[in-house]
Amino acid sequence: MELAEVEAVVVERVEFPLQPDLGKCYSRAYLNGIICKLNKLLTKTSISIAKNRFGLCQNFAMKRVEVKKINLREVVKILGNGGLIIYPTETLYGIGADATNEMAIQKLTEYKNRPFGKPYSIAVADQKMAEGYVYLNEAAKNLYKKFLPGPLTVISKGKQKTAKGIESEDGTLGVRIPDYKLVIDIVKEFGKPITATSANASYKKRPYKVSDILENISDKQKNLIDLIIDAGELPPNDPSTVVDTTMDDPVTLRQGQIKFNEKNEILSKSEEATQNLAKELWQKYEIHKGKRAIVFALQGEMGSGKTIFTKGLGRAMEITELVTSPTFAIENEYLIPNTKHFLYHFDAWRIENSNELRSLGFDNLIKNKSIVSIEWAERVAEIIREFDDEAIIIWVNLKYGKNENERLISWGVEQ
Amino acid sequence: MKILAIDTSCDETAAAVTEGTKVLSNIIWSQAAAHAKFGGVMPSLAQRMHEERIDWVIERAIKSSKRATGSAIKMQSLDAIAVTIGPGLSIALGVGIDRAKRLAKKYNKPLIPINHVEAHILSPLANSNDEMQFPAYGLCVSGGNTIFVLIEKEGYKILAETQDDALGEALDKGARMLGLGYPGGAVLEKMAKLGNPKRFTLPIPLVGQEKRQIFSYSGLKTSFYRLIQSSPPKTKQDTYDLAAAYQDIAFKHIERVLEYSMTNNKLKIDSKADYVNLLVGGGVAANIELRKRLRKLSKKHGVRVSVPYSEKLYGDNAAMIGVCAGFKIIAGEVKPSDLFDYDKIDRNPRLKINQ
Fold first, then answer.
1. What is the number of domains present in chain B?
2. Whole-number pLDDT of residue B270
């Protein structure tokens, strides 16, 4: 056994008896996670960092504080110790961790329940602070001037000054200056950027109030939170718009409150990003569930990502069944777990006229306020439009972009 | 034990009479021509056509079986009725099930519900003298399904299944992109034969990720779209070469996933036979190039490929439904005497093989 390995075991023995005393601070699972990682890392430094962390974190327990009673110094102390804080913004509740502390980012990734390597945006206090972490080109500077602080995330080339896991694999970094005084104050007091990701776990409900978060996460996840700053229910604003300025022309990667075009349009660079857009659109229209039928009318050529998009819808609805192409069976149904609702997935390629769609029970689906995704919707656009009054119809256009995996995806409630 | 089998899972209205795993008759009435002008199967048209033709097809199946046995077979002298309950086109499945129930009630016969994909996988057993050896590999490659399974005495274990398109569907869509009509998998095969698969390069789906044991054709469709955009076919030879490249890569993906599985799951058979079987069924199994490649790959791993004895058993047919029912009875998996509760039997468009 190597020395470091021995020490790792010692850490485990020493720290575990402490566990009951930690209270709500860190769950056993998180402790285990650290130990496992330690065993893999096998370096003395990381062990001492961990010892340090365990020692320090005993001072804190998951706390929920009203926004007016907040003590900035306490918040900063938690951040400094690698803790996670949930905070309100002008868009959604976000979750913040020290963007320069790798352990904190690992903890955040565990909380978000997403694979390591998916980048995080950061919140800074002002442009000057941003420039410590990213290179701002002309396009970016213009956007800062015009829109920040505000609901816009600007992606620039990173300076690799943040912790591993913050910048994307291509070395880009999304920066946000929230239009929310408290957040600016926290970041200023902290003197370093904090993560600016939504406080929900991946593919869970958009958090507009604290219960949206707590009701949709496990106890294990709850135990990872050190502080919740509760500002009550936030207005139902869209998340921030994400713009990538690292290419020749700025490109919208996520369409939020700020719009640069007449239409809603984003550039998806991967199947994952297409699924993510589907998730966001579902979260936007989910409030109509059970009140009106929700129809995603997907239009786009072969291979443009219609089934991928529907996979994303399924994922956002927590459907675990494999969502596959409906081309052969024309219609597939997936039960949405813990509800009586189904996701109906159609391929309209072979459907020629309104009687065809009716014979598949489309009228009833609308009447029953169902959730429907139709591929090749352009072929049956007229029939779908007949239900304009009864259903929320979201027209989604998927087009091939310039490069292999790029897709330009636009959408709207009018075709 | 003589069985009347019925399958109306998509656009073929099919009935057959079987005895054990022997096929006595196999009647298929295809709607393909009727649907061709619409570029695919139209659901309500399919339903109507199944309804119009099913009695005629059943009658023909019974009549032809007389010829095979030399003696008169009547509905009364049959021992059971087997019917496809899924997966398939919902409203089409309904037609076959309704008719099967009606006949079962009228003649007081047991009704055996059959999984269409399982029947495709077991279709090589039809008229075969070989005994089934467990465990065996099973592969169904059709327009609606692509699944690779381990067949054990106790049931099926899914080794790999498609995440998006079935192989047949992917080939049909490739043909559609080349403007060859839909479904065009068979046309694509013919053209691929005349083409050079090496002239154009396409990436093999999920290369290096065979360990994940999944099939996926979404990426290949994208690459093929890009390829056609950048080198649109100007001559017939261009089309042949594109078709050849696409089919080649679509098959290579299947080969690589199977190869990984065969390398890593060394199957031990418990009997005197010194080989493991790979049973292959489904419409795409009729593709000679695919069969050739599966044989070559299997040989390397001491696996023997079995395919159906007749072309009529590759595409959708009812003989395989009867053979599957016969196999289950012989294996003791189903007892016909338990199968008189007709109301319990219902269609399941997304029926899983291990369900």
1. 2
2. 63
Task: Looking at the structure, tell me whether residues B301 and B156 fall in a common domain.
Answer: yes
| Cα A389 → chain centroid | 32
pLDDT tens by residue, B64-123: 998 777 777 888 889 999 999 999 988 899 999 999 999 999 999 999 999 999 999 999
User: Quick one: B140 and B79 in the same domain?
Assistant: no
- Cβ A330–B41 below 8 Å, yes or no? yes
The answer to whether the Cβ–Cβ distance between B165 and A330 falls below 8 Å is no
Work out the minimum CA distance from A311 to partner chain B, whole angstroms: 9
Q: Say whether pLDDT at A144 is over 80.
A: yes
Answer whether residue B349 is part of any domain.
no
Same domain, B213 and B318: no
Among candidates A307, A331, A333 on the partner chain, residue whose Cβ is nearest the Cβ of B164: A307
- Output the domain CATH number for residue B51: 3.30.420.40
Distance CA B180, CA A290 (A): 43
Share of chain A above pLDDT 70, in %: 83
Same domain for B206 and B70: no
Regions in chain B scoring below 70 on pLDDT: 34-41, 182, 269-273
CB contact under 8 A, A331 and B349: yes
How many Cβ atoms are within 10 Å of A6's Cβ, its own excluded? Answer: 10
Tell me the mean pLDDT in the region A165-176: 92
Burial level of A249, CB count in 10 A (0-12/13-18/19+)? exposed
Tokens of B188: 């694509």
Residues belonging to chain A with any Cβ–Cβ distance to chain B shorter than 8 Å:
271, 301-303, 305, 307-308, 322, 324-325, 327-333, 349-352, 355-356, 359-360, 400, 404-405
B144 contact residues in A (CB cutoff 8 A): 328-329
How is A298-341 classified by DSSP, letter by letter?
Answer: EEE-TTSSHHHHHHHHHHHTT--SPP---TTTSEEEEEPTTSS-
- Residue B350 within any structural domain of the chain: no
Range of the domain at B294: 132-306
Inter-chain CB proximity A327 and B173 less than 8 Å? yes
What are B2-39's pLDDT values in tens digits? 999 999 998 899 999 999 999 999 999 987 776 666 65
Q: Say if B57 falls within a structural domain.
A: yes
- Does the residue B232 lie in any domain? yes
